[in-house]
Structure formats: structure tokens, C-alpha cells
Design goal:
The structure holds 2 protein chains of 2 kinds. Chain A is of the alpha+beta class. Chain A has helices spanning about 5-60, 65-75, 115, 125-130, 155, 180-230, 245-280; strands at about 80-85, 90-95, 130-135, 140-150, 170-180. In chain A, helix 1 (about 5-60) runs antiparallel to helix 6. Classes of the chains: A alpha+beta, B mainly alpha. The interface of A and B includes residues 2 and 8 of A. Chain A: It comes from Geobacter metallireducens.
Chain lengths: ~280, ~180
């Protein structure tokens, strides 16, 4: 079947077009996914900065009750998986999950290791490095952002004198948002691209195959049947009527068949005449 | 002592047709060679699938490169650059195979493509983007190697058919 004329004409372009379109769609989806993920991380980082700025006054006034309320309210928002503030030693001081308060976090944990990998912890990081993706205990996909809370002149000049001027980072805000809306959007995008891909393949491969079948393969098959009939001795058969190159080929075969028939008739007449002549001599 | 003279050389006079048996043997040998050649595509495909299985786990079964070697290699290219190169490579490879099919050339470069595709897996691995782009490289490989396999299989089958006609002609002459 793969050796037939139809296969040779349709299989290579079908494989080429299908493969190339699928490769391009996969790469396009991958690029869009990366861009959407980067946008989500950018949005989360801005949100984290907003939270730190919103909590600034409460921290400055050492108003822990207000700060606790801010963290609780943020934690109750739909899509927020966790919100917590660590102090410099890694102890969770405020959290939307009360059971996490006063727990010590390992510096080697994800979200902490990026700054604490070396002997001297980093005090600033790029936006993308601040983000991490994981699946939490509830089985939800989470994008988490860790932003430092920097020491400012208003902090180390405050009446409580808690922080010294040499301390660059006072603590860290860690916020985790559910990836579900992003995954849902990506799922919809994936579905649409698959549908588009299928439509393109049906049009190109199906369309080209259908036109090839109608305009080339079927006429060639008809021509092949006609020539086989001539070969079997049916010289009176009419050639298929086409106006293109196949039609020319068919007419040439018809002429050959007509000449062959004429030659055969001449030979018959000659033999018949010779036979009569021999009879009359006898 | 009588000197033994070497036997007279068997000179073939000009215009003598070649020995039919030797032509027949030569044709059978060529048909065997063509049959072996037509399976090359499958071997390349199998090799590519083996490499893809290793790449599926992000090359976790292979030992990771020491930091000194990584430092020498430098920073990996960005994933988007590698993807652009992959699209160009796939496009040009497909065009080249189709051109060879159209020209009826025997040239086969399936194993070279396995090498190039392995390099793409490697580049994505170093750029830490293999999980997102694995299937793109896999589909590109299946497409290019599938076309190469079909081309060489088709070419060899046509060549075998022509050689078979020679054998049939020899048989007909023998019988007559």
C-alpha cells in the first residue's frame, strides 16, 4: 500500500506538514506559558511589595494587632494559599495559619536557600529568583514569592531602638498564590491550539489529498484500466476524456490502439488473400 | 628440466556479452545490499527513541556534569533561542528530505539527524527548559526520521524492482 502512487504522493507531504505544524504549536504554547508564568510572578511580586508597604506603618508603630489583622485578611482572600512574615532569625512571627506562628524555618528550605546558599546571605535578588513553584500539603499548585523587609532610617531611628543601623534586612514576607487560574487559562489555550492545529491539518493534508485524488490519482487509475483493456485485446474501447496531460496520454494510447487494430486487420486481409491464392493454384 | 609455461591468459574478445551467471550473482548481491539499506531508517528511529527515553527523565540516569566543566561551557542559551533554532532546523531538514525525494537521490542522513536532535535535547537540558520543550524535539525527530526512513525505503524498493527486472530478463533468456 505504501508503494502505491497515491501513497508516494500523499504520505511525505502529510508527514511533513503534520510534523511541522505540531512542532510549531508545541513551541508556541511553551513560549506563551513561560510569558504567562513570568507575568504571574511579576504580578505576585508587585502584590507582595504592596503588602509590605501597607504593613509598614503598623510595623513602625510596633502595632502587632493591626499587623496580625492585615495578614489574616490577606490570608482569607480567594486564591491566597499562605501569607507569613519571618523575622531575621527565620521564626514565623505572623501567619494567616495560626498554627505556623513561632515555628523556625530551615534556611535550606525552598524560598530561603536562594539567599542563604552562601556564608553571607544575599540582601537583594532578581524578581524571577524570588519566585518558586511547588505543590503544597493540600495538593494545590502554588507560586510563592519571598520579599525582604528592608531596614529604613525611620525603623532604626524609632523610639523602641530595636533595630541597629547596620542591619540591612529586618525580616521576610512570604506569600503563596494558587496557580489554579493560570493552569485553567493554560488549559483553555491548549485546547484552542489543539483545535486550531487539527483544523489546519484537515485543511492542508485533507484538502491537498482530496484534490490530488480527484485530479491525478483517479484519472491515472482510469488510464491504467484503459491500457490494461487494450493489452487484453479490447481495441475498440474508448479512451477516458480529459483535457489535461492525462487526456493527451489517453489519446496517444487510443491512437496506438487504432493503428494496432488497423495493422491487425491488414494482416488478416493479407492472410485471407494468400489463402485464397494458394487454393486457386491447387 | 622442462619449464612449465604459464597457462594462456583467458582474454575476453571485445563485444562478448558478460557471463549471465556472474551478472545474476552480482544482481542478487545488490538486492541483498539494498534490502539491508532499506532498514537503516528503522535503526535510526530506534536509536532516536532510546535517546528520547533517556531525555524524558531530564537525563537523570546520567551523571551530572562537574561544576568545572559547566563553568568552561559557560551560560546556556535562552530557551526561546533554542526553540527558534529548532523551528529553523526542522523546516530546513524537511525541505532537504523532500528535495532528495524529488531528485531521486540515494543519500541518507538519518543518523546525523539523531545527533542533531540529541544536541537539542542537551541544549534544552542545560537551559533548564527540557520539560516544557521535550515533546517539540520528539515530534520534530519523528517527523524528520519518518521522512528519511520513507525516502530510503522507497528508493531501495524501486532499485530492488529494477534489479528484479534484470533477474527476470535473465530467467526468460534461460528458458528460451
Amino acid at each position: 500500500m505504501l508503494k502505491s502512487f497515491a501513497a508516494k504522493a500523499t504520505v511525505p507531504p502529510a508527514i511533513a506538514v503534520t510534523g511541522f505544524v505540531v512542532v510549531c504549536c508545541i513551541l508556541l504554547y511553551s513560549v506563551i506559558k513561560t510569558d504567562m508564568l513570568n507575568d504571574a510572578i511579576q504580578h505576585e511580586t508587585n502584590l507582595a511589595d504592596t503588602i509590605v508597604k501597607s504593613a509598614r506603618y503598623a510595623m513602625l508603630k510596633d502595632d502587632r494587632e493591626t499587623l496580625r489583622n492585615i495578614i489574616d485578611n490577606i490570608g482569607q482572600q480567594k486564591g491566597v494559599e499562605h501569607t507569613r512574615i519571618f523575622n531575621k532569625k527565620g521564626v514565623i512571627m505572623f501567619s494567616a495559619h495560626p498554627e505556623d506562628v513561632n515555628k523556625l524555618v530551615d534556611k535550606k528550605a525552598a524560598g530561603c536557600i536562594a539567599c542563604h546558599a552562601g556564608t553571607v546571605p544575599l540582601t537583594s535578588m532578581g524578581r524571577m529568583e524570588q519566585a518558586r513553584r511547588f505543590i503544597n500539603e493540600e495538593g494545590h499548585s502554588v507560586i510563592a514569592i519571598t520579599v525582604p523587609i528592608y531596614n529604613e532610617p525611620d525603623c532604626f531611628n524609632a523610639a523602641c531602638h530595636v533595630h541597629s543601623p547596620s542591619q540591612k534586612v529586618l525580616g521576610t514576607l512570604d506569600i503563596g498564590l494558587s496557580e489554579e487560574p493560570l493552569q485553567k487559562t493554560l488549559g483553555t489555550l491548549r485546547g484552542r491550539m489543539i483545535v486550531f492545529c487539527l483544523m489546519v491539518l484537515v485543511l492542508t493534508v485533507g484538502g491537498v489529498s482530496a484534490l490530488l485524488l480527484r485530479n491525478v490519482l483517479l484519472p491515472i487509475k482510469e488510464l491504467a484500466n484503459y491500457v490494461n483493456a487494450i493489452n487484453r485485446g479490447d481495441l475498440n474501447r474508448k479512451a477516458p476524456a480529459y483535457r489535461d496531460e492525462i487526456g493527451e496520454l489517453a489519446r496517444s494510447y487510443e491512437e496506438l490502439a487504432t493503428r494496432l487494430k488497423a495493422t491487425q486487420d491488414e494482416l488478416k486481409q493479407q492472410r485471407a488473400a494468400e489463402g485464397d491464392g494458394a487454393d486457386s493454384r491447387v | 628440466m622442462k619449464r612449465t609455461q604459464p597457462p594462456p591468459s583467458h582474454e575476453v574478445p571485445a563485444g562478448t556479452p558478460p557471463d549471465r551467471d556472474s551478472v545474476r550473482q552480482e544482481t542478487i548481491r545488490r538486492i541483498k545490499q539494498l534490502r539491508h539499506k532499506s532498514n537503516r531508517g528503522l535503526w535510526a528511529m530506534a536509536l532516536f527513541i532510546a535517546v528520547s527515553i533517556v531525555a524524558l527523565g531530564d537525563f537523570s540516569i546520567l551523571p551530572s556534569l562537574p561544576p568545572s566543566v559547566r563553568a568552561i561551557l559557560g551560560k546556556a542559551p535562552s530557551a526561546i533561542m533554542i526553540s527558534g533554532a529548532l523551528v529553523l532546523y526542522t523546516f530546513s531538514a524537511i525541505i532537504l528530505v523532500l528535495a532528495r525525494m524529488m531528485g531521486g537521490k540515494e543519500e541518507y542522513s538519518g543518523f546525523a539527524h539523531v545527533g542533531y536532535l540529541t544536541a537539542f535535547y542537551g541544549f534544552y537540558h542545560f537551559a533548564k527548559a527540557l520539560n516544557e520543550n521535550y515533546w517539540a524535539v520528539f515530534v520534530a525527530g519523528i517527523t524528520i526520521l519518518g521522512l528519511e526512513s520513507y525516502h530510503i525505503w522507497n528508493f531501495c524498493n524501486e532499485a530492488i524492482r529494477r534489479e528484479q527486472e534484470i533477474l527476470d530478463a535473465i530467467e526468460r533468456f534461460r528458458k528460451s
